[in-house]
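User: Here's a protein and a ligand (adenosine-5'-triphosphate). What would the complex look like?
Assistant: Let me lay out the input and then the predicted complex.
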Amino acid sequence: MIDLVEATKKYDDGPPALAGVTLSVAAGECLAVLGHSGSGKSTLLNLIAGLDRPSSGTVTVDGTRVDQLGEAGSARFRRASVGMVFQFFNLLDDLTVLDNVLVPAQLAGMGKAEARRRATELLGALGIDRHGKAYPQRLSGGERQRVAVARALMNRPALLLADEPTGALDSRSATDVRQLLLDLNAEGQTILLVTHDVELAASTAHRTIELVDGAVVRDIDNSGRSGAAHGAAPLRAPFDAAGSSFDGADAAGTPGARR
Ligand SMILES: Nc1ncnc2c1ncn2[C@@H]1O[C@H](COP(=O)(O)OP(=O)(O)OP(=O)(O)O)[C@@H](O)[C@H]1O
Ligand SMILES: [Mg+2]
């Protein structure tokens, strides 16, 4: 799903933000990226999402050479293949919860009825359907992050990128979001999770890499991850009541053929 070869990102002066990272992430995997502030985590995420280009090296995601895309191509790639969740939710305050979740579908040109059906389903699965008509500011942090996750999943992305998704949450909401990521991954969703939180990484991801000064210094297998054993209440409904699933076997095609 993700293949980086010797990806380097240099800004004007100073040492590179990312220094020759070679990394492969398989479809269905949950990879955590750990590292201190300034170690290059967000830079890595931005290269994978096509929000930024490497100074050298290659970035291939879901079969697309992301480093070779222009601006329009990169926006199209993100709409089709990537969902993103951030520390501070990045919801639009002037739109209701439901309308926030609908934005990616509108950008992708999904039919209105289908989009509403999918958004309602996702809000239900995430346990926030009763807030559909509310504005984000009225919601708790954990609820807002659920809205952000629903929005990220709207277009059935091959890849979910999460940058410190629990960083702004209290421990209970953080547990809920962690369980949500585990459930999504169990359904086949490929996830890349950036975090400072060693415990979150170990309990959620199959594998953890650690960045220091833009280089991968560790690559640890967490196959004994413990998260499923002590999580929050399970999701109320399957993510994909409509029949297509996170494993990429839906009408949009396999991950490699989705574009
Ligand atoms: N647009 C930019 N221009 C110049 N330097 C940048 C830019 N973006 C990031 N950097 C530098 O690149 C390095 C890596 O930054 P990055 O944001 O990837 O770190 P991070 O690991 O995500 O940190 P944090 O945990 O604080 O979010 C830092 O030294 C940062 O100052
Ligand atoms: Mg960052």
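Summary: The mean pLDDT is 86.
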